[in-house]
Amino acid sequence: MARLVACLAHIRSKFVDAKKTQPKKKTGKADVVLSLIGKLFGIEQRIKEMSIDDKFKIWHIATTTIG
Asked: Taking the model in full, what pTM does it have?
């Protein structure tokens, strides 16, 4: 059974804060995580109107190949 454990928007905001502490013009871990979260948001937008079963299948496939 799937269960919501955290809101990506709140997680993202913490990494936006962390990015502010990085040296300017330097890619850091916060940038990498923000990029991955952006990909997850994109997947959510594409599957928004699908059935829960289809969402689960696509989410599982897409998230195991992200990176």
From this structure: 0.74
| Residues 27, 40: Cα–Cα separation, whole Å | 20
- Residue at 27: amino acid letter: T
What's the average model confidence in pLDDT over 2-18? 84
Dihedral Cα 32, 34, 37, 39, nearest 10 deg: -70
- Max Cα separation, the chain? 43
8 Å CB contact between 59 and 46:
no
Q: Is-contact 33 42, C-beta < 8 A?
A: no
Q: How far apart are CA 51 and CA 6, in angstroms?
A: 22
- Average pLDDT rounded to a whole number, residues 32-60: 92
Q: Which amino acid is at 21?
A: T
For residues 21-48, give the mean pLDDT.
91
